[in-house]
Every structure is written in C-alpha cells, then in structure tokens.
Amino acid sequence: MDLTAYRDLWKTQGVMALLASALIARLPVLATMVPLAFLAKDAAGNFGWAGVVAGAYSVGTAVASVVWSRMADRKGARKVVIGTGMAWGVWMAVLALLPYSWYRLLPIAAALAGVFVAPVTSALRANWPRIVHGSRLRAVYSLDATAQELLFVFGPMLGAVMVSFASPRAGLLACAVTAAAAIWWFGLSQQSGVPHDEEAGPRPTAWQLVFHPHRTPILLAWACLVMAEVAAEQKAASMSLGMVAVADEHGNRLIAGILETVAAVGSVTGGVINGALPGGRTSAVWRRMLLFAGLVAACIFVTSSVVALAIGMFAAGCMIAPTVAALYERIGALTPSSAHTEIFGWAQSGGMVGSAIGSAVAGAVVEAFGVRYAWVLTAGLTVLATLSLLRVPPHRPLDTSAVDGAAVAA
C-alpha cells in the first residue's frame, strides 16, 4: 500500500471541499427516508401507506434524475444543483407540515419531492476528471465510493435518531434546512458554464449516450450489481433482503443490522486499500466483479451460522467499493466530458430501478425456496454483470508523471 495518492488528493485544490460538501449535501437526503416512512405511517395508521409514499418518492427521483443531469451538462451544474436543491427543501417542508387528515396527498407530494432531488452525485463524479488527473483519478473514485458506504451507515441512523428524540415532522424539517444549505455550498463549487469542445463534434443524444458498445454493458452491469447488493446508491436489494431473512430465521432482528454493518465495514476497508494501491498494471473491471461474485457465492453455504456468514459478508464487502469505483472510472473514461453528468444520471436511475426489481424478486425467491437462495440470486446477478463487462476495455495506466505534476485545480 502507498498512501501517497491520498496525500496528493488532500493537497489538490478543491478536492476535499468538493467531496465534503457533496457528502454533507447527501447525508440529510438519505436521512429523510426514515422520518418520511414514520410520518406516512402516523398519518395513515399503517406501514402499507408508508411503502406507497416511499415508492412514489423513488419513482419521482428515477424519472427526473436523467433530466436534471442532462440539463446540468448543457446549462451548467451550478444553477441546476442549487435550483433543484432549494425546490427539494420546499417540498420536504410541505410534506412535514401537511395535516395528517390530508394523508392521501402524501404520495403526490413525495413524488414531487423526488422529482427535485438535486443531481449532487452525478455532478460530483462529473467533476473528478476535470480537477484530478493520472493515477489520482482512480484513487478519488475509490475514495468517493468508500465515503458513500459511510453515508449509508450514518444517514438512516441520523433519521432514526431524529424520529426517536423529536418527531417525524421535525426530522423532515431539519433535513430540509440542512440539505438546502449544504446543496447551496456544493452548488457554488460547480462551474457556472459547461465547456464543450466543438471540434469533438456535437453533444451526444440520449440514445447515442446510452446505447454504446462499451457504456451499455457498464450500465447493465451497474443495474445487475444494484439488484444484487447494497451498491452505493441504493439501500435495498437481494443481498440486503437476505440479511433481513437470516435475522428473521434466527429470531433476532438485530442480526440484520450487524450483518449490514459488517458488510459496510468490509467495503470501507476494501475501498481504502484500493485507493492506496499503486495501480501500475492494466486492470479489467470484470475481474473485480468476478471476484465479488465468488465471495458472495461462498456465503451460500454458511447462512445457517451467523458468525460464518458475518465473516463471508466482510470478505464480500471488501470488494464492493473497489468494484463500484472501477465502474465509475470506466464509464467516466469512456464518456465524452460534455456528457459526464448525464451518464452518471442514467446510472443512478438505472440503479434505482434495479434496486426495486432486486428487492421484489429476492422477496419472492426467499419465500419460495429459502434464505440461502437470496445469495444464490445475488451471485447469479453478479455473474451476469461479469459477463456484461467482458468486452469493456480495461484501465491502462498512462505515463502521467507530467500531468500529475501540473494537476488542474477547479
């Protein structure tokens, strides 16, 4: 391991401020799901309505994500991020203040709030190639993927704390105010205009961007990965549901939280190590995906033992952040700079759809065949992702000594 890459990132102007503002902006957005679910339950009197409200929010986000990301590439990310962030805060306040007797309007308000989720994640990843170059680009994608695992550990926990010590309404209002301030901070760090090299030809259409010999397989692999596990952007999929099923089978719901935490700790560990590796050799993303598939497959045989499964989940978790980081790097490198935000928006929308499908299918599989088949499904999906990535060009280290010495600061 070599921590030079992290020291270089720390010294590169704009990197840490950009990452910090993005993480703080996304934390309250993640934290809203817990108070939103309890608000819907308190208003309607059942968790079924909470599922409807959460689903409406997810649909709104998935539909609008690509639109805002595409607009950010064309009009400039600053206006789009700040505008949507302020609108999201307003709709969250509306949700918080809506009288319980109007609970039937909650899905509509939630869908509108979902529509205005700011494209912070897409804009962040579009910025990395503009301010980081050479070997440090791989390290910053790894750091990004690792940091998101921490968000998924602390975001829902923060929401639960606000609900426990205050109320769902207070939790939503706190998230709305905090997110608005943080998104404004993040938005100010974005370029006001979008540079476009006219000599490189016109900007690609949505069809040209998505249906491409290399980008399409990466998007498909990403969707499969999110269907399979808790992949950085979404929080519920087949592996996650499998952990819940194991906890239920053993009669202790706390086990689900422990397994989730163990997998997240493994991912953070793997991400930190991945970013510190020299990266001097050609690497193909399908190899990381295949290794992850193999580690998940090993968990199939140990679901009867919580300790053995926890060890398996830690090992599999160690490959989550490195695999996600490699997917980020490949899709960024294989996309024109004028469409970086949009392509990550497509990935986010595809991931949300994949998460919903993965959760639904996993639930049916567990009911029909048993707990261990959640991991069979997860392994199968990651094998499909591996096959999809076979023809994606590998990452090849370049002679970047000159570039690294003159890193561009944004």
Structure description:
This protein is mostly helical. The protein is built from 19 helices and no strands. Helix 2 (about 15-30) runs antiparallel to helix 7 (about 120-130), helix 4 (about 45-75) runs antiparallel to helix 5 and helix 13 runs parallel beside helix 15. The longest helix has about 30 residues, at about 135-165. The two termini are about 30 Å apart. Mean pLDDT is about 80; it is low at about 230-235 and about 400-410.
Name the quaternary structure.
single chain
Strand element count:
0
Mean pLDDT: 82
Query: Any idea what the shape is?
Result: globular
Taking pLDDT < 50 over at least 5 consecutive residues as the criterion, the unreliable ranges are: 230-236, 399-410
**Percent of residues in beta strands?**
under 5%
Order of helices and strands: HHHHHHHHHHHHHHHHHHH
Largest sheet: none
Proportion of residues in helical segments? over 70%
The Rg value, from CA coordinates, equals 21 Å
Number of helical segments with 4 or more residues: 19
Q: Report how far apart the termini are.
A: 28 Å
Class from helix and strand fractions:
mainly alpha
Brief sketch in words of this structure:
This protein is an all-alpha fold and 410 residues long. It has helices spanning 4-11, 15-31, 33-44, 47-75, 77-97, 106-115, 120-131, 135-165, 168-188, 206-210, 215-228, 238-249, 254-276, 285-299, 306-317, 320-333, 340-369, 372-389, 401-405.
